[in-house]
Amino acid sequence: MPIGSMxxxxxxxxxxxxxxxxxxxxxxxxxxxxxxxxxxxRVIAKTRTREFLRPMLERRGYLTTSAIKGGxxxxxxxxxxxxxxxxxxxxxxxxxxxxxxxxxxxMLPAANTSA
Length: 115
Known about the structure:
The chain has one domain: Gcn5-related N-acetyltransferase (GNAT) (Aminopeptidase, 3-Layer(aba) Sandwich), CATH 3.40.630. 20% of the residues lie in helices and 37% in strands. The protein has two helices and seven strands. It has helices at 46-60, 73-80, and strands spanning 4-6, 9-16, 19-27, 30-35, 63-68, 83-87, 91-96. The radius of gyration is 15 Å and the shape is globular. The termini are far apart.
């Protein structure tokens, strides 16, 4: 449930054990989110991620985001299921069209099995 808005942005918290673990900022289909310092560098559970994204994805149909090229966000966005749609030279743009982590998917990057 949204907690407020600022100039059209909607802020949606995600709670874990009664405390805010993350907040999504939405403007239309554009999403940016931050994770509480307490939750950073911890395992991101697939079920929690799906639970967090589901209502926003269902309401909007798809979600978009962007990340500065060369930044550390790209691998993270790929693991969450966002797919790169285009680059404008300094920013990469992404889209999420379905919830991440089907039963067979892992949050970890695929192992290199080539010999």
